[in-house]
Please model this.
Amino acid sequence: MSRFAQRREKIRRRLRKNKVDALLVTNFTNVGYLTGFTGDDSYLLITGKSDVVLSDERYTTQLEEECPDLELNIRGPGKKMLPTISRLLSSVKAKQLAIEANSMTVALHGSLQEAAPKCELMAADGWVEKLRAVKDRDEIARTRVACDQARRAFEVVRASLTPEMTELQVAADLEYQARRFGGKGLSFPAIVAVGARAALPHASPTTQRIGSADFTLIDWGVNEGLYVSDLTRVLVTGKILPKLRKVYGVVLKAQMAAIESIRPGVTCKAVDQTARSIIESAGYGKRFGHGLGHGTGLEVHEAPRLTRGQSTVLVPGMIVTVEPGIYLPGWGGVRIEDDVLVTRTGYEVLTSVPKELEECVVG
Model:
Protein backbone atom coordinates (compact mmCIF):
# COMPACT_ATOMS: atom_id res chain seq x y z
CA MET A 1 0.00 0.00 0.00
CA SER A 2 1.40 3.41 -0.98
CA ARG A 3 1.84 6.13 1.61
CA PHE A 4 -1.00 8.02 -0.10
CA ALA A 5 -3.31 5.01 0.24
CA GLN A 6 -2.31 4.72 3.89
CA ARG A 7 -3.25 8.35 4.45
CA ARG A 8 -6.63 7.83 2.81
CA GLU A 9 -7.20 4.76 4.95
CA LYS A 10 -6.67 6.89 8.07
CA ILE A 11 -9.36 9.23 6.79
CA ARG A 12 -11.63 6.25 6.15
CA ARG A 13 -11.18 5.17 9.77
CA ARG A 14 -12.16 8.69 10.79
CA LEU A 15 -15.31 8.38 8.68
CA ARG A 16 -16.27 5.15 10.44
CA LYS A 17 -15.51 6.63 13.86
CA ASN A 18 -17.71 9.65 13.19
CA LYS A 19 -20.38 7.57 11.42
CA VAL A 20 -20.12 9.68 8.27
CA ASP A 21 -20.57 8.20 4.79
CA ALA A 22 -18.05 10.29 2.85
CA LEU A 23 -15.56 13.19 2.91
CA LEU A 24 -15.28 15.69 0.07
CA VAL A 25 -11.75 17.12 -0.03
CA THR A 26 -11.83 20.52 -1.74
CA ASN A 27 -8.55 21.98 -0.47
CA PHE A 28 -6.16 21.37 -3.39
CA THR A 29 -3.16 20.98 -1.05
CA ASN A 30 -5.02 18.30 0.89
CA VAL A 31 -6.00 16.56 -2.35
CA GLY A 32 -2.31 16.38 -3.24
CA TYR A 33 -1.35 15.11 0.21
CA LEU A 34 -3.87 12.27 -0.02
CA THR A 35 -3.24 11.30 -3.64
CA GLY A 36 0.18 12.47 -4.85
CA PHE A 37 -1.44 14.65 -7.50
CA THR A 38 0.53 17.88 -8.05
CA GLY A 39 -2.09 19.77 -10.06
CA ASP A 40 -5.06 21.78 -8.89
CA ASP A 41 -8.75 22.37 -9.71
CA SER A 42 -9.55 18.82 -8.55
CA TYR A 43 -11.54 17.34 -5.67
CA LEU A 44 -11.29 14.00 -3.91
CA LEU A 45 -14.28 12.03 -2.65
CA ILE A 46 -13.47 9.42 0.00
CA THR A 47 -16.22 6.97 0.94
CA GLY A 48 -16.28 3.86 3.08
CA LYS A 49 -15.02 1.71 0.21
CA SER A 50 -13.67 3.95 -2.56
CA ASP A 51 -11.62 7.00 -3.48
CA VAL A 52 -12.51 9.07 -6.53
CA VAL A 53 -10.65 12.07 -7.94
CA LEU A 54 -12.93 14.52 -9.72
CA SER A 55 -11.15 16.60 -12.33
CA ASP A 56 -11.29 17.71 -15.96
CA GLU A 57 -9.60 16.71 -19.20
CA ARG A 58 -6.63 19.05 -18.70
CA TYR A 59 -5.31 16.69 -16.05
CA THR A 60 -6.22 13.26 -17.42
CA THR A 61 -2.69 12.18 -18.35
CA GLN A 62 -1.11 13.76 -15.28
CA LEU A 63 -3.56 12.02 -12.97
CA GLU A 64 -3.00 8.67 -14.69
CA GLU A 65 0.75 9.07 -14.17
CA GLU A 66 0.72 10.41 -10.62
CA CYS A 67 -2.28 8.50 -9.22
CA PRO A 68 -2.36 5.12 -11.01
CA ASP A 69 -4.21 3.41 -8.15
CA LEU A 70 -7.10 5.88 -8.02
CA GLU A 71 -10.48 5.91 -9.69
CA LEU A 72 -10.83 9.00 -11.87
CA ASN A 73 -13.98 10.87 -12.80
CA ILE A 74 -13.02 13.21 -15.62
CA ARG A 75 -15.65 15.64 -16.83
CA GLY A 76 -15.66 17.01 -20.34
CA PRO A 77 -15.99 20.61 -21.56
CA GLY A 78 -19.09 22.36 -20.29
CA LYS A 79 -19.79 19.79 -17.59
CA LYS A 80 -19.81 21.09 -14.01
CA MET A 81 -18.28 19.59 -10.88
CA LEU A 82 -21.28 19.70 -8.54
CA PRO A 83 -23.71 17.56 -10.57
CA THR A 84 -20.96 14.97 -10.84
CA ILE A 85 -20.50 15.00 -7.07
CA SER A 86 -24.25 14.68 -6.59
CA ARG A 87 -24.40 11.59 -8.83
CA LEU A 88 -21.50 9.97 -7.01
CA LEU A 89 -23.08 10.60 -3.62
CA SER A 90 -26.33 9.06 -4.86
CA SER A 91 -24.51 6.02 -6.23
CA VAL A 92 -22.99 5.24 -2.82
CA LYS A 93 -26.23 6.19 -1.03
CA ALA A 94 -24.44 8.76 1.12
CA LYS A 95 -26.67 10.45 3.69
CA GLN A 96 -23.93 12.38 5.52
CA LEU A 97 -21.07 14.20 3.79
CA ALA A 98 -18.13 15.67 5.69
CA ILE A 99 -16.77 18.84 4.12
CA GLU A 100 -13.63 20.92 4.67
CA ALA A 101 -15.27 23.88 6.33
CA ASN A 102 -11.98 25.75 6.72
CA SER A 103 -11.49 25.99 2.96
CA MET A 104 -15.00 25.83 1.52
CA THR A 105 -16.63 29.13 0.63
CA VAL A 106 -20.17 29.97 1.67
CA ALA A 107 -21.13 30.03 -2.01
CA LEU A 108 -19.74 26.55 -2.66
CA HIS A 109 -21.43 25.22 0.47
CA GLY A 110 -24.78 26.56 -0.68
CA SER A 111 -24.36 25.21 -4.20
CA LEU A 112 -23.31 21.79 -2.87
CA GLN A 113 -26.30 21.62 -0.56
CA GLU A 114 -28.56 22.53 -3.48
CA ALA A 115 -26.96 19.90 -5.73
CA ALA A 116 -27.25 17.18 -3.08
CA PRO A 117 -30.37 18.11 -1.05
CA LYS A 118 -30.75 14.65 0.47
CA CYS A 119 -27.22 14.70 1.92
CA GLU A 120 -26.49 16.24 5.31
CA LEU A 121 -23.31 18.36 5.22
CA MET A 122 -21.06 18.12 8.27
CA ALA A 123 -17.88 20.08 9.02
CA ALA A 124 -14.69 18.00 9.16
CA ASP A 125 -12.53 20.01 11.53
CA GLY A 126 -8.98 19.73 10.21
CA TRP A 127 -9.06 15.98 9.55
CA VAL A 128 -6.42 16.11 6.84
CA GLU A 129 -4.43 18.94 8.45
CA LYS A 130 -3.99 16.86 11.60
CA LEU A 131 -2.47 14.07 9.52
CA ARG A 132 -0.20 16.55 7.73
CA ALA A 133 1.17 17.79 11.07
CA VAL A 134 3.19 14.58 11.52
CA LYS A 135 5.69 13.99 8.71
CA ASP A 136 6.88 10.64 7.39
CA ARG A 137 10.45 9.86 6.33
CA ASP A 138 9.99 11.13 2.80
CA GLU A 139 8.48 14.40 3.99
CA ILE A 140 11.31 14.93 6.46
CA ALA A 141 13.90 14.16 3.77
CA ARG A 142 12.33 16.67 1.40
CA THR A 143 12.22 19.30 4.14
CA ARG A 144 15.95 18.73 4.71
CA VAL A 145 16.51 19.48 1.02
CA ALA A 146 14.45 22.67 1.30
CA CYS A 147 16.49 23.76 4.33
CA ASP A 148 19.78 23.08 2.53
CA GLN A 149 18.65 24.96 -0.57
CA ALA A 150 17.73 27.91 1.65
CA ARG A 151 21.18 27.83 3.24
CA ARG A 152 22.98 27.73 -0.08
CA ALA A 153 20.89 30.52 -1.58
CA PHE A 154 21.46 32.70 1.47
CA GLU A 155 25.20 32.13 1.47
CA VAL A 156 25.50 33.33 -2.12
CA VAL A 157 23.31 36.38 -1.50
CA ARG A 158 25.18 37.27 1.68
CA ALA A 159 28.54 37.04 -0.08
CA SER A 160 27.35 39.40 -2.82
CA LEU A 161 25.76 42.08 -0.61
CA THR A 162 26.87 45.65 -1.21
CA PRO A 163 25.74 48.87 0.51
CA GLU A 164 24.11 50.05 -2.73
CA MET A 165 21.79 47.06 -3.04
CA THR A 166 18.13 47.61 -2.19
CA GLU A 167 15.79 45.37 -0.23
CA LEU A 168 14.01 44.56 -3.47
CA GLN A 169 17.25 43.50 -5.16
CA VAL A 170 18.17 41.23 -2.24
CA ALA A 171 14.73 39.60 -2.34
CA ALA A 172 14.99 39.07 -6.09
CA ASP A 173 18.47 37.57 -5.73
CA LEU A 174 17.21 35.14 -3.09
CA GLU A 175 14.50 33.99 -5.50
CA TYR A 176 17.02 33.51 -8.29
CA GLN A 177 19.47 31.60 -6.10
CA ALA A 178 16.69 29.37 -4.72
CA ARG A 179 15.88 28.28 -8.26
CA ARG A 180 19.55 28.03 -9.17
CA PHE A 181 20.06 25.46 -6.42
CA GLY A 182 17.13 23.33 -7.60
CA GLY A 183 14.19 24.81 -5.75
CA LYS A 184 10.80 25.51 -7.27
CA GLY A 185 11.19 29.00 -5.82
CA LEU A 186 10.92 30.73 -2.47
CA SER A 187 8.42 29.41 0.07
CA PHE A 188 6.90 32.90 0.25
CA PRO A 189 7.90 36.43 -0.85
CA ALA A 190 11.11 37.17 1.04
CA ILE A 191 11.06 39.74 3.82
CA VAL A 192 14.09 42.03 3.61
CA ALA A 193 13.97 44.93 6.09
CA VAL A 194 16.78 47.39 6.67
CA GLY A 195 17.24 49.08 10.05
CA ALA A 196 14.05 50.66 11.41
CA ARG A 197 11.94 48.76 8.87
CA ALA A 198 12.86 45.53 10.67
CA ALA A 199 10.34 46.57 13.33
CA LEU A 200 7.69 45.42 10.83
CA PRO A 201 7.41 41.63 11.26
CA HIS A 202 6.05 41.23 7.72
CA ALA A 203 7.80 44.11 5.98
CA SER A 204 7.58 44.15 2.19
CA PRO A 205 10.89 44.91 0.40
CA THR A 206 11.36 48.47 -0.83
CA THR A 207 14.06 50.57 -2.51
CA GLN A 208 15.71 51.14 0.89
CA ARG A 209 19.44 50.52 0.52
CA ILE A 210 21.33 47.98 2.63
CA GLY A 211 23.98 50.53 3.52
CA SER A 212 21.51 52.96 5.07
CA ALA A 213 21.56 51.19 8.46
CA ASP A 214 23.76 48.92 10.55
CA PHE A 215 21.66 45.77 10.20
CA THR A 216 19.16 44.03 7.93
CA LEU A 217 16.56 41.37 8.77
CA ILE A 218 15.99 38.68 6.15
CA ASP A 219 13.16 36.13 6.36
CA TRP A 220 13.11 33.56 3.57
CA GLY A 221 12.66 29.89 2.73
CA VAL A 222 12.77 27.59 -0.27
CA ASN A 223 10.13 25.35 -1.81
CA GLU A 224 12.07 22.30 -3.01
CA GLY A 225 9.18 21.22 -5.23
CA LEU A 226 6.58 20.34 -2.61
CA TYR A 227 7.98 20.90 0.87
CA VAL A 228 9.21 24.21 2.26
CA SER A 229 11.66 25.75 4.69
CA ASP A 230 11.39 29.00 6.67
CA LEU A 231 14.31 30.89 8.25
CA THR A 232 15.12 34.36 9.56
CA ARG A 233 18.50 35.95 10.18
CA VAL A 234 19.75 39.43 11.02
CA LEU A 235 22.86 40.50 9.12
CA VAL A 236 25.10 43.19 10.56
CA THR A 237 26.10 45.48 7.72
CA GLY A 238 27.70 48.16 9.89
CA LYS A 239 28.74 48.30 13.53
CA ILE A 240 27.46 46.11 16.35
CA LEU A 241 26.06 48.85 18.53
CA PRO A 242 25.24 48.16 22.22
CA LYS A 243 21.46 48.19 21.69
CA LEU A 244 21.65 45.64 18.89
CA ARG A 245 23.92 43.43 20.99
CA LYS A 246 21.48 43.58 23.90
CA VAL A 247 18.29 42.93 21.91
CA TYR A 248 19.90 40.25 19.78
CA GLY A 249 21.24 38.51 22.87
CA VAL A 250 17.79 38.33 24.45
CA VAL A 251 16.19 36.94 21.28
CA LEU A 252 18.91 34.34 20.76
CA LYS A 253 18.71 33.23 24.39
CA ALA A 254 14.93 32.89 24.11
CA GLN A 255 15.19 30.92 20.89
CA MET A 256 17.82 28.52 22.17
CA ALA A 257 15.89 27.87 25.38
CA ALA A 258 12.70 27.18 23.44
CA ILE A 259 14.47 24.78 21.09
CA GLU A 260 15.99 22.96 24.06
CA SER A 261 12.49 22.50 25.52
CA ILE A 262 11.18 20.69 22.44
CA ARG A 263 10.50 16.98 22.92
CA PRO A 264 7.58 14.56 22.64
CA GLY A 265 4.88 15.16 25.23
CA VAL A 266 5.49 18.88 25.65
CA THR A 267 2.62 21.20 24.73
CA CYS A 268 2.93 23.91 22.10
CA LYS A 269 2.01 26.60 24.61
CA ALA A 270 4.76 25.44 26.98
CA VAL A 271 7.42 25.89 24.27
CA ASP A 272 6.03 29.34 23.49
CA GLN A 273 6.08 30.29 27.17
CA THR A 274 9.71 29.21 27.52
CA ALA A 275 10.79 31.83 25.00
CA ARG A 276 8.21 34.41 26.03
CA SER A 277 9.22 34.37 29.70
CA ILE A 278 12.83 35.20 28.81
CA ILE A 279 11.77 38.12 26.63
CA GLU A 280 9.34 39.34 29.29
CA SER A 281 12.00 39.14 31.99
CA ALA A 282 14.25 41.33 29.85
CA GLY A 283 11.50 43.97 29.71
CA TYR A 284 10.46 43.40 26.08
CA GLY A 285 7.32 41.32 26.60
CA LYS A 286 5.04 43.84 24.89
CA ARG A 287 7.39 43.92 21.90
CA PHE A 288 6.96 40.22 21.12
CA GLY A 289 3.54 40.31 19.55
CA HIS A 290 3.23 37.03 17.69
CA GLY A 291 3.32 33.31 18.39
CA LEU A 292 6.66 31.55 18.72
CA GLY A 293 6.26 29.40 15.65
CA HIS A 294 4.24 27.14 13.39
CA GLY A 295 4.43 23.92 11.49
CA THR A 296 5.84 23.73 7.98
CA GLY A 297 5.29 21.18 5.24
CA LEU A 298 3.38 21.48 1.99
CA GLU A 299 2.57 25.00 3.16
CA VAL A 300 4.73 27.44 5.05
CA HIS A 301 2.11 27.87 7.79
CA GLU A 302 0.36 24.73 8.98
CA ALA A 303 -0.30 22.77 12.16
CA PRO A 304 0.83 22.74 14.88
CA ARG A 305 1.03 26.30 16.24
CA LEU A 306 3.50 27.25 18.95
CA THR A 307 1.59 29.99 20.72
CA ARG A 308 -0.41 30.81 23.81
CA GLY A 309 -3.48 28.70 24.43
CA GLN A 310 -2.38 25.84 22.16
CA SER A 311 -2.53 22.62 24.19
CA THR A 312 -1.51 20.43 21.24
CA VAL A 313 1.14 17.94 22.36
CA LEU A 314 4.30 17.59 20.31
CA VAL A 315 4.93 14.15 18.81
CA PRO A 316 7.83 12.74 16.77
CA GLY A 317 7.65 13.78 13.13
CA MET A 318 6.34 17.27 13.67
CA ILE A 319 8.40 20.07 12.12
CA VAL A 320 8.02 23.53 13.64
CA THR A 321 9.64 26.92 13.32
CA VAL A 322 11.02 28.60 16.43
CA GLU A 323 11.10 32.35 15.77
CA PRO A 324 10.98 34.71 18.75
CA GLY A 325 11.31 38.41 17.98
CA ILE A 326 11.56 41.85 19.53
CA TYR A 327 10.26 44.81 17.52
CA LEU A 328 11.00 48.41 18.52
CA PRO A 329 9.31 51.02 16.31
CA GLY A 330 11.72 53.70 15.14
CA TRP A 331 14.76 51.52 15.82
CA GLY A 332 14.20 48.14 14.22
CA GLY A 333 13.63 44.54 15.12
CA VAL A 334 15.38 41.22 15.68
CA ARG A 335 13.93 37.82 14.84
CA ILE A 336 15.85 34.55 14.69
CA GLU A 337 14.14 31.54 13.12
CA ASP A 338 15.03 27.90 12.55
CA ASP A 339 13.14 24.79 11.48
CA VAL A 340 13.11 22.08 14.15
CA LEU A 341 12.11 18.41 13.89
CA VAL A 342 10.58 16.71 16.91
CA THR A 343 12.39 13.38 17.34
CA ARG A 344 11.70 10.38 19.56
CA THR A 345 14.12 11.64 22.18
CA GLY A 346 13.98 15.41 21.72
CA TYR A 347 14.67 17.58 18.71
CA GLU A 348 16.87 18.14 15.68
CA VAL A 349 17.52 21.56 14.16
CA LEU A 350 17.20 21.12 10.40
CA THR A 351 18.58 24.55 9.48
CA SER A 352 22.28 25.31 9.72
CA VAL A 353 22.80 29.00 8.92
CA PRO A 354 25.12 30.63 11.53
CA LYS A 355 23.33 32.84 14.06
CA GLU A 356 25.80 33.98 16.73
CA LEU A 357 25.92 37.76 16.40
CA GLU A 358 29.60 37.89 15.43
CA GLU A 359 28.91 35.29 12.73
CA CYS A 360 26.26 37.57 11.24
CA VAL A 361 28.66 40.42 10.46
CA VAL A 362 28.95 41.01 6.71
CA GLY A 363 32.56 41.65 5.79
Remarks:
- The two ends are 53 Å apart (CA to CA).
- The longest helix spans residues 137-159.
- The chain has two domains: 3-131, 137-360.
